[in-house]
Amino acid sequence: MILQPEEAKVSVYDRGFLYGDSVFETIRTYAGEPFALDEHLARLERSAGRVAIPLPLPRADFALEIRRAIRAARNPESYVRAMITRGSGPMGLDTGLAEKALRVVLVEPLQALPATMYRDGVAVTTFKTRRAADEVAQGAKVSNYLTSMMALKEARAAGAHEALILDGSGDVLEGTTSNVFALTQGVLVTPPEEAGILVGITRAHVLEVAGELGIPVRVERLPLETLRSATEVFITSTLREIVPVVRVDGQEIGARVPGRTTRAIHAAFRQKVGLGAEPLPWEKAGD
Ligand SMILES: Cc1ncc(COP(=O)(O)O)c(C=O)c1O
């Protein structure tokens, strides 16, 4: 059933609402086609599996529904949030109280990010937590983002674009809604899944692109000191692609401007998503 957003309703007994008992994916289109849809749905299924939410329909059927929703929205490019909640039922933590899992696909016009973010790079802050995520749901994209929201609130108050989450030992894990990479002594480093990150789809594509460009890559723990002394730092996410980071907690990184390796990886990524003939995000006028 496709509805206008103001017509769509979810029960107040929905467990996503009551307990954050839901998983989701953020997807975007390029030329109207959802990018890496299979990878997103594989991750959604994995997330749902980690918290024992049974998928209410086969993955391929959900893909068809998502494509249909995108077509119906008729946006030039779309941002898609695909959600699965455990469903609704009497209150209580017992998962058996839920009826059938509920799926919701939100489609909105994709908003372009300011060109300045790509041209000049962004500032980030750091936010220390004892543990990155709820251990049970580690690696799953569950809907409770409260730690991330508090971290981002602090970042925004400091005039920064993103907050990087640190674990108990002070190692950098990821951004609130992004993964992080640092170029250190010519090697591109990004934290591993075991550190407690969400394994980003963009991260996977960036790792692939870096390999193709012959950039040495290491997936390993990233101490804050390594990040601070890196020559280049960038974050990755579906909606932002690759954003250069030029300041961490007020301290400048490398040459204080987006680096050559970051640019090369982003240009190669744009080729990969079919935008090779378009101006690069930092070449666009405005903002
Ligand atoms: C915690 C977290 N890490 C990383 C990412 C980046 O993942 P992707 O590249 O799949 O968008 C996200 C995306 O929202 C996220 O929420």
From TrEMBL:
Cofactor(s) this protein cannot do without: pyridoxal 5'-phosphate
Broadest EC class assigned to this enzyme: transferase
Top-level division of the source organism's lineage: Bacteria
Pfam family, one: Aminotran_4
Molecular functions (GO terms): branched-chain-amino-acid transaminase activity
Keyword Disulfide bond carried by entry: no
Keywords: Aminotransferase, Pyridoxal phosphate, Transferase
Reaction it catalyzes: L-leucine + 2-oxoglutarate = 4-methyl-2-oxopentanoate + L-glutamate; L-isoleucine + 2-oxoglutarate = (S)-3-methyl-2-oxopentanoate + L-glutamate; L-valine + 2-oxoglutarate = 3-methyl-2-oxobutanoate + L-glutamate
A GO term from the CC aspect: cytosol
UniProt-listed PANTHER family: AMINO-ACID AMINOTRANSFERASE, AMINODEOXYCHORISMATE LYASE
Protein family according to the UniProt entry: Belongs to the class-IV pyridoxal-phosphate-dependent aminotransferase family.
Protein name: branched-chain-amino-acid transaminase
Organism: Chondromyces apiculatus DSM 436
